[in-house]
Every structure is written in structure tokens, then in C-alpha cells.
């Protein structure tokens, strides 16, 4: 009904507004439709109301201090849950801050979606100098699996469906979704808008391998004299724990886990060749890669780290991964669960066997290495000042009492030594610097692990590594998360004993009492100077279920430059 002037009456106004919605509401509806439970982000123009509305709708919004950390949290959430983690950022600088995490997630094959608000298209495209102006879609493209922009509110549902599907299906990765401010503010008919949102049917379909490909792999394994399985973080991500274990145990093939695959089978499993890793890689004649790429972390499959005659079987969801570094004699393209099931089903009993000689060769080397390491570990228990290995053994022992706790780990020596010292008993409980060896994942990964699982987290951090995301201690305290950060503080990037040659500190030197930092935010700070103190404090902090930080004072001369990967430093004319 209209009045004589053809303007709507007041009653009609009320009806209309009841039937209207806007872009922000549609985004939240779409996120809920996709089952999103947590959003990690930093608010500001144009997404503050979006965060508020999401929170009101029952989605948890975890507000960070820096988008990089929020993005890393979203990536870790994706890895842990097999559902894309959501990172929400503002335009240009906030978007760029998030991009490191989006690129890192893509490199690690973790599913996440970064949703960023963006500025006015008609200003951005003519470079008229808008507030936070940037062509974000173009910038994002090269750093993620796919980048999309929603240009009309009626496409929000489609855009989110597309982003979620792309992130999770096939090889998982990071997806960017650009939503301009104008689209968030666009008003539309609520009923019509509701019809534009849909859930995904079978978002990550199983990919069954070809029977001939399975048989080819079995035949190759059956001819092997020294077979080896390498489990990578794709195997952890796949959540096919039983199928993997079944295959390994029924065949008896020795395996080595990559760092984030630790715990898929408990680290003390009799078939683990982790303590004879170098020998296993060098001597294996048939190698089956399961969710692990032959990238730099595996020496590209080259000799002398590997036998030049080694034949490779590769289990991966991404067909294009095959032959990227070495000829793949038996490609097994499919999802790991389906492939492992097929391998068990199609191999005849006793077809794949492992010669005693190979088992003994590995066991002998393992015993030697363990005995040598035992001496170093024993000496570290009483060394003063404390060594990395002293503190790490204390963490190892407390974790053994709390196997449900998650380990987050970054640094150089702090990473290499923790990986080798801290045994994992449970799948997907170790998150670390990953394929890039990136610093800065620590607090974001820890927050996601705590938020997504409700379980305690121990973040084992080099002091330099910690600094990249250390401000998120405030986030941890604000949300009262059960995260204990242990900073292995040897006062330096790598070591802390470099002599200064100018009036400034040497480039690698650092100096901080990180335990005082957490106190500023209301958390509990500890300083530990002995392994016994680390142990008692960590036990107490975990039992409290509250945010805590232990500054573990480590000998500044402990550790090596760049940890285990010093050989990657360019060697020109000596600097000193
Ligand atoms: P790591 O660093 O532990 O060696 P990578 O990150 O190099 O592991 O390799 C992980 C691999 O796992 C990637 O090539 C990825 O395509 C693959 N992948 C991820 N999820 C699955 C899955 N569900 N099924 C099969 N392959 C997968
Ligand atoms: N910046 C980013 C984002 N990632 C990186 N990997 C680096 C810089 C270079 N880098 C490393 O590769 S390890 C590391 C840096 C700065 C820190 C090593 O010092 P730490 O660990 O204190 O964390 P250790 O235990 O003292 O070796």
C-alpha cells in the first residue's frame, strides 16, 4: 500500500525492513551453513560488524594482534580438522599481513580461506587513492591455490562455496576470497538472499586409485630387498591412521616419519627407523612416499643421501607431484586412506616381506646411534648452564605424562633438537615450521590447537622464533587458553655468543626475559635455569590449565648456526 504521494507507508517500511538483509548477514549465514565454528582474525574497516555478527550467531571469533598469526591459526585449524580454517582481515595492509600465512598454508597443503574486506572497486581500479587501496585479488593470486572475488551480494553464497570447495578438495591449500566493502553493505531481499547460500555435498570426495596402479606398487614392493616407507604430513592430514598402521604392520616394512607425521604410529614403534634415518634413506632400494614430497627436506631424492638406484612409489592426491624430482616407478594417485586400504586388500598374504638382514642392519645402526645419543643426553641433564637437550628432556618427560597435549615447535636448533628428543605417541599432535621452515607460526598454531581441540598445548620455541608472534601471548591470556610456551632462550638467532665487531650488537644477538612479557597480560611467568626446574614448572603450568610461559635459560654457546641446515648458507668470501 502506498500513500497518495506514492511513498511507502510506515507500516510498509517496517515490513520491508523485516524482509531485508545485507552482505554481512549473508556472509555469516554462509559460514554457518558450511559449519564454521571459529574465525581467526583482526577487525577494522570494513569487517568489524562481520566479526560482531559472527560472534552473535554462535561462531567463535578469536581476535588476534596481527593477521599473520590469525592466518597461521586458520591454517593449523585446517590441518587439524580437515575443514578449511577461516582467517578474516581488513583491506590492504591487513590483507598483506595475512598473505604470508595463506602462502605458507598453501605450501604446506593445509586448507584455509582468507576472507578480506577490500576498498571501493571504482576507486581502486582507477588508482584514485582510496583508504587502504590495493588490487588484492591480483596480489593474492600467486600466493595461494585460488583467489576469488565476490562483486555482488547475491554471489556471496556462491563465492564461499567455491572457496571452501577449492581449499579442501584434491590437494588442500589456501584460498583467498575478496569481499569489497560495498558488497558487505549491499542490502537485499532476505528471502532471496537465503536461497543463494548452499552447503557442500561431499566436499573432499575419496579418490580411489586404479587397480593396475595398486598392483604395480605391490609388485615393486614385493621385489624389494630393502623397502622403506616415508610418512609425511599429508599422511597425518589424511586422518587414515588405521589404514596406514594396518599396511605398515601387515607388511612389516620399516618406516621413517617426517616431523609432522611423528605419532601416526608411536615413535617407539618397533618398525620405526627414525633412529637409523640416514642409513635407511641411503640403503633403501624401494621407497614408498606416503603424503611426503621429494623436496629439499628429503634431499630431492638425490644421491648420496639416497641410493642412486632407489625406485620410488609415491602415494599422493596430486598427480602433478609425481616425477617432480625423481622418476616415480609406481605412482599411486588417490587419497591416502583409499590407497592404503587398496594396498592391503590387493596384496596377497606374504607377498610383501622384509628380509631379516635389512631389519638387522637398521636395528644395529639404531642401537649404535641411540647409545651415542644416550651419553649426550645424560651429560645434558646435569650441564650448567642448561643445554637445549637438558630442557628438552624435561619437556619430553612431562609430555609422556600428558600424551593428549599438542606440541608446537619452531626455531633452528630448538626445532631440530626438539624433533629428535620429544617422542610423539598420538597422530597430528606435532605442528611445526613445516615445508618453508618459517618462523612465526608458534603462537597462531598453538592458539588454533587449543581452540579447536580444547586440549593443552606446549609451544617449544627458539627465542628468536618466539619473537615473531610473541605479542599473541596477550590473545592467549585474553581467551584464557591452556597454552604453556617454553622459550629455549640462548640469547640469539641460532647461538647467543657471537662477538660484536662494532658498537652495535652482532646480527644474531638477542636479549630478553620472556617470562616478564606474559605477566603484563596476566599470565604466569617462570624462569628456569635447570632441567629439573623446567620439569616442575611445566608440570605445574599444565596442571593449572592456564596460560603460562617458561623462559628456559640456555647456554648461549649451545647450538649451531642455522641448526641442521647450515649447508644452505651461501659460501662466498668469508665475512669475518
Ligand atoms: P612432509 O613435509 O611431511 O614430507 P609434504 O608437505 O611434503 O610432507 O607432503 C604432503 C603431501 O601430501 C602433498 O604432496 C599433498 O598433495 C599430499 N596430500 C595431502 N593430503 C592428502 C590426502 N588426503 N591424500 C593423499 N595425499 C595427500
Ligand atoms: N624469517 C622467517 C619468517 N623465517 C625464517 N626461517 C627466518 C626469518 C630465518 N630464521 C631461521 O631459519 S631460524 C631463525 C630465523 C630467524 C631463528 C633461529 O633462532 P631461534 O632458535 O632462537 O629461534 P635456536 O634454537 O636458537 O637456533
From TrEMBL:
<protein>
    <submittedName>
        <fullName>Oxalyl-CoA decarboxylase</fullName>
        <ecNumber>4.1.1.8</ecNumber>
    </submittedName>
</protein>
<comment type="similarity">
    <text>Belongs to the TPP enzyme family.</text>
</comment>
<dbReference type="Pfam" id="PF02776">
    <property type="entry name" value="TPP_enzyme_N"/>
</dbReference>
<feature type="domain" description="Thiamine pyrophosphate enzyme N-terminal TPP-binding">
    <location>
        <begin position="23"/>
        <end position="138"/>
    </location>
</feature>
<feature type="domain" description="Thiamine pyrophosphate enzyme TPP-binding">
    <location>
        <begin position="421"/>
        <end position="551"/>
    </location>
</feature>
<dbReference type="InterPro" id="IPR029035">
    <property type="entry name" value="DHS-like_NAD/FAD-binding_dom"/>
</dbReference>
<dbReference type="InterPro" id="IPR029061">
    <property type="entry name" value="THDP-binding"/>
</dbReference>
<dbReference type="GO" id="GO:0008949">
    <property type="term" value="F:oxalyl-CoA decarboxylase activity"/>
</dbReference>
<feature type="domain" description="Thiamine pyrophosphate enzyme central">
    <location>
        <begin position="214"/>
        <end position="343"/>
    </location>
</feature>
<dbReference type="InterPro" id="IPR012000">
    <property type="entry name" value="Thiamin_PyroP_enz_cen_dom"/>
</dbReference>
<keyword id="KW-0456">Lyase</keyword>
<dbReference type="InterPro" id="IPR017660">
    <property type="entry name" value="Oxalyl-CoA_decarboxylase"/>
</dbReference>
<dbReference type="InterPro" id="IPR011766">
    <property type="entry name" value="TPP_enzyme_TPP-bd"/>
</dbReference>
<dbReference type="InterPro" id="IPR045025">
    <property type="entry name" value="HACL1-like"/>
</dbReference>
<keyword id="KW-0479">Metal-binding</keyword>
<dbReference type="InterPro" id="IPR012001">
    <property type="entry name" value="Thiamin_PyroP_enz_TPP-bd_dom"/>
</dbReference>
<dbReference type="Pfam" id="PF00205">
    <property type="entry name" value="TPP_enzyme_M"/>
</dbReference>
<keyword id="KW-0786">Thiamine pyrophosphate</keyword>
<dbReference type="Pfam" id="PF02775">
    <property type="entry name" value="TPP_enzyme_C"/>
</dbReference>
<keyword id="KW-0460">Magnesium</keyword>
Amino acid at each position: 500500500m502506498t500513500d497518495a504521494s506514492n511513498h511507502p507507508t510506515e507500516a510498509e517500511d517496517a515490513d520491508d525492513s523485516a524482509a531485508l538483509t545485507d552482505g554481512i548477514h549473508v556472509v555469516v549465514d554462509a559460514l554457518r551453513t558450511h559449519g564454521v565454528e571459529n574465525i581467526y582474525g583482526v577487525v577494522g574497516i570494513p569487517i568489524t560488524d562481520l566479526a560482531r555478527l559472527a560472534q552473535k550467531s554462535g561462531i567463535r571469533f578469536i581476535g588476534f594482534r596481527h593477521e599473520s598469526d590469525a592466518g597461521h591459526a586458520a591454517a593449523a585449524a585446517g590441518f587439524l580438522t580437515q575443514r578449511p580454517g577461516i582467517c578474516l582481515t581488513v583491506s590492504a595492509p591487513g590483507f598483506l599481513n595475512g598473505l604470508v600465512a595463506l602462502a605458507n598454508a598453501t605450501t604446506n597443503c593445509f586448507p584455509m580461506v582468507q576472507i578480506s574486506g577490500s576498498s571501493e572497486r571504482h576507486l581502486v581500479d582507477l588508482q584514485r587513492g582510496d583508504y587502504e587501496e590495493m588490487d588484492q585479488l591480483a596480489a593474492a593470486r600467486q600466493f595461494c591455490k585460488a583467489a576469488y572475488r565476490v562483486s555482488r551480494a547475491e554471489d556471496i553464497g556462491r563465492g564461499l562455496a567455491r572457496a571452501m570447495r577449492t581449499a579442501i578438495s584434491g590437494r588442500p591449500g589456501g584460498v583467498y576470497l575478496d569481499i569489497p566493502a560495498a558488497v558487505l553493505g549491499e542490502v537485499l531481499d532476505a528471502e532471496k538472499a537465503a536461497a543463494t547460500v548452499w552447503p557442500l555435498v561431499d566436499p573432499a570426495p575419496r579418490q580411489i586409485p586404479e587397480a593396475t596402479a595398486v598392483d604395480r606398487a605391490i609388485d615393486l614392493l614385493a621385489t624389494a630387498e630393502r623397502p622403506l616407507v616415508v610418512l609425511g604430513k599429508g599422511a597425518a592430514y589424511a586422518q587414515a591412521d588405521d589404514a596406514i598402521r594396518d599396511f605398515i604392520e601387515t607388511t612389516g616394512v620399516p618406516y621413517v616419519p617426517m616431523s609432522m607425521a611423528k605419532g601416526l604410529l608411536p615413535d617407539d614403534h618397533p618398525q620405526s627407523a627414525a633412529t637409523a634415518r640416514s642409513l635407511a634413506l641411503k640403503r633403501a632400494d624401494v621407497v614408498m612416499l606416503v603424503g611426503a614430497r621429494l623436496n629439499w627436506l628429503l634431499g630431492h631424492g638425490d644421491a648420496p643421501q639416497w641410493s642412486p638406484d632407489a625406485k620410488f612409489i609415491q602415494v599422493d592426491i596430486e598427480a602433478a607431484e609425481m616425477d617432480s624430482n625423481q622418476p616415480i616407478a609406481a605412482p599411486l594417485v588417490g587419497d591416502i586412506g583409499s590407497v592404503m586400504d587398496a594396498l592391503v586388500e590387493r596384496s596377497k598374504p606374504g607377498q610383501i616381506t622384509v628380509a631379516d638382514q635389512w631389519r638387522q642392519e637398521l636395528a644395529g645402526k639404531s642401537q649404535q646411534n641411540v647409545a651415542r645419543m644416550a651419553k649426550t643426553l645424560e651429560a645434558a641433564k646435569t650441564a650448567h648452564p642448561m643445554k637445549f637437550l637438558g630442557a628438552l628432556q624435561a619437556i619430553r618427560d612431562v609430555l609422556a605424562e600428558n600424551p593428549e597435549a599438542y606440541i608446537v615447535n619452531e626455531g633452528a636448533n630448538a626445532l631440530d633438537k626438539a624433533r629428535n628428543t620429544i617422542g610423539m605417541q598420538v597422530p597430528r599432535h606435532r605442528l611445526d615450521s613445516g615445508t618453508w621452515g618459517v618462523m612465526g607460526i608458534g603462537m597462531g598454531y598453538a592458539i588454533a590447537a587449543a581452540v579447536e581441540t580444547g586440549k593443552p598445548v606446549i609451544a617449544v620455541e627458539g627465542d628468536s622464533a618466539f619473537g615473531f608472534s610473541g605479542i599473541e601471548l596477550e590473545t592467549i591470556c585474553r581467551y584464557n587458553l591452556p597454552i604453556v610456551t617454553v622459550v629455549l632462550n640462548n640469547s640469539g638467532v641460532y647461538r647467543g655468543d657471537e662477538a660484536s665487531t662494532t658498537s652495535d650488537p652482532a646480527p644474531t644477538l638477542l636479549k630478553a626475559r620472556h617470562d616478564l612479557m606474559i605477566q603484563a597480560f596476566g599470565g604466569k611467568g617462570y624462569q628456569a635455569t635447570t632441567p629439573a626446574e623446567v620439569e616442575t614448572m611445566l608440570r605445574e603450568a599444565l596442571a593449572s590449565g592456564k596460560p603460562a610461559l617458561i623462559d628456559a635459560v640456555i647456554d648461549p654457546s649451545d647450538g649451531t648456526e642455522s641448526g641442521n641446515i647450515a649447508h644452505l648458507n651461501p659460501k662466498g668470501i668469508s665475512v669475518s
